[in-house]
From TrEMBL:
Assigned keywords, A-Z: Flavoprotein, Oxidoreductase
SMART domains found in the cross-reference section: cNMP (SM00100)
The species this protein was found in: Roseateles violae
Protein name: FAD-dependent oxidoreductase
Domain of life, per lineage: Bacteria
Length: 566
């Protein structure tokens, strides 16, 4: 399926589907092996582990999608000199689409490990291939041409929950409105779904009724349940900017790295609509775009990412240069590592407002993406918070909403927000900045969600109530450190992780700058006491921690990666 001239993807088609020259294919040959397929043979299937990247030498292959309702939708045909893969094949994730030989076809197959080696060894060619793999994933997301099919009411609480999970993890998906599709409505009825319950059809045909995020992730192949016996060089808990930076630097230097996060990659930075003070991006970049690039980069160098996977408890009883750390996951599995980075960040803080929990996902949001922006188009919204993330969200939402009521408890924004954002908010006519103001009440019902919000000026006591269906909360966060309780990592009075001199122990142990009170356990980003709580600072700490980890592993004797000459 060729994009129409009006399609924004049309201008990128030459980058999405580059034609390799004979000389370039010759350079690729040493990384792959030849294989042949008779006409009608399946090369790969959606939902099954992808074998890697295919380079077509002769013949043609049709790429199609199954929509879960018995329909097969053509996406594209590819021929000699083209290659078949998308970014998931860097780590051997399940294929998102089907591929069938339209005629007898000869290919080169480059498995995931060799694909990563090719991209690193052949820098210019690797750049073209990586760009194509990323753009293909972006295309699948934008046109909804692959991934699980979500069937139900588009605006139900659970549908928005599942869409948000898939979107924040860069997973393509297709939404079918059961109110407009008879086949979809019949499928809901067949599976006994309630009116507001979504049904998910995975690529392998499995049907899930209103699944949890973890169950959905397993169904689409994001997460497996393999027992992990290996001893990793580095385990990173948290896939925000700090954790991803550490993963990129550590994996690129040869360490065997695994990264886990209980929600999605990007952390709280992923909620930023536009970051404009990050070095190297003068026009700004969204938090999701920045995190998405880091996520791909970490996979390119061989880091393994487990999302969603929740850290339950850390056993530090065997910590030390010649020992190991053992992390228990919520699913019961154990991960073992020589060193560990705490990059678990913080969880969203919830103001003490009656009925708030009742409307989470049904009018109350903790981030502002394109999905939320569409939902509140032309409406008045309330945003609570005065930090940079709140400012970025207010400016972004103002481009879609009729009016943004921005509630600030303090006397101004200067203490918590960058100057460029303060100036932009002041210049935006449909942002109403309400100082000395707090949210006090919410109203609505189970059927339609949030309907009204009331706030109060703490100086005058005057209250104002408006018909509000969309509330955005950016009121800070508390450190995610509950999983460290049994490990003995020293925390400050607010629960943030102490490092360096502040983490020195009575027995005389003097940790390195980003090291905790437990040898081999480091902390970076928002979870660390004294961190600057900025994306740039988090990335810098993640990179710096890797240098310290090399020094730590160098003391571990012949078993460490450092002693192997890496």
């Amino acid at each position: 399926m060729t994009p129409s001239p009006e399609d924004p993807l049309a201008s990128r088609r030459h980058q999405m589907f580059p034609l390799l020259s004979a000389a370039e294919i010759a350079r690729i040959r040493r990384f792959g092996s030849p294989c042949g397929f008779a006409q009608g043979t399946r090369l790969f299937a959606a939902g099954e582990p992808g074998p890697g990247m295919f380079v077509i030498l002769s013949g043609r292959v049709a790429i199609t999608q199954r929509d879960g309702l018995g329909h097969i939708v053509p996406i594209v045909e590819q021929g000699p000199g083209e290659f078949m893969a998308e970014v998931g094949q860097l780590s051997g994730r399940p294929a998102l689409v089907d591929g069938h030989a339209l005629e007898n076809t000869e290919c080169l197959l480059i498995p995931p490990e060799q694909l990563r080696a090719l991209i690193i060894a052949e820098a210019d060619l690797g750049e073209r291939i990586t760009r194509a793999l990323i753009l293909r994933r972006v295309s699948l997301i934008e046109i909804g041409a692959a991934g699980p099919v979500l069937i139900g009411c588009p605006h139900s609480q659970d549908m928005l929950r599942l869409q948000g999970f898939l979107r924040r993890n860069g997973q393509p998906h297709h939404l079918v409105n059961a109110n407009q599709d008879a086949d979809a409505a019949a499928l809901l009825l067949q599976h006994g779904a309630a009116p507001d319950e979504p049904l998910v059809v995975c690529a392998d045909g499995a049907v899930l009724l209103n699944p949890s995020e973890t169950l959905l992730a397993r169904c689409i192949g994001m997460l497996d349940l393999r027992e992990r016996e290996e001893l990793f060089d580095l385990l990173i808990v948290g896939a925000g900017p700090a954790g991803l930076a550490a993963a990129v630097y550590a994996a690129s230097e040869g360490l065997q790295v695994v990264v886990l996060d209980c929600r999605h990659f990007g952390g709280q930075a992923g909620a930023s609509a536009r970051i404009e003070n990050y070095l190297g991006f003068p026009t700004g970049i969204s938090g999701m775009a920045l995190a998405g690039r880091a996520y791909v980069q970490a996979q390119k160098f061989g880091a393994e990412l487990m999302i969603p996977a929740e850290a339950l408890a850390l056993d530090c009883s065997r910590a030390g240069p010649d020992g190991e750390l053992r992390l228990e996951l919520a699913d019961g599995r154990i991960l073992r590592a020589r060193s560990l980075i705490i990059a678990s960040g913080a969880r969203y803080r919830r103001p003490a407002v009656p009925r708030l929990a009742e409307f989470e996902g049904r009018g109350v949001s903790f981030w502002a993406s394109a999905l939320e922006a569409r939902l509140c188009s032309g409406a008045e919204v309330v945003l609570v918070g005065g930090g940079n993330s709140a400012g970025q969200a207010a400016v972004y939402l103002s481009q879609h909403a009729a009016k943004v009521h921005m509630l600030i408890r303090g006397a101004g924004l200067a203490a918590s927000m960058s100057r460029y954002l303060i100036d932009r908010i002041a210049a935006t006519p449909n942002i109403a900045l309400r100082l000395h103001t707090e949210l006090v009440a919410l109203d609505g019902d189970a059927q339609d969600g949030l309907a009204r919000a009331r706030w109060r000026c703490v100086k005058t006591g005057i209250e104002d109530e408006e018909p509000i269906r969309h509330l955005f909360l950016f009121v800070g966060a508390d450190p995610e450190t509950g999983w460290l309780t049994d490990c003995g990592v020293a925390l400050d009075a607010h629960g943030f992780v102490l490092t360096g001199a502040e983490a020195a122990t009575p027995d005389g142990y003097r940790p390195a700058a980003l090291e905790t009170s437990v040898p081999g356990v480091f902390a970076v980003g928002d979870v660390r006491a004294g961190s600057v709580k900025r994306v740039g600072g988090a990335i810098g700490e993640g990179a710096a921690a890797v240098a310290l980890i090399h020094q730590y592993l160098a003391r571990a004797g012949s078993n460490s990666i450092a002693s192997r000459g890496v």
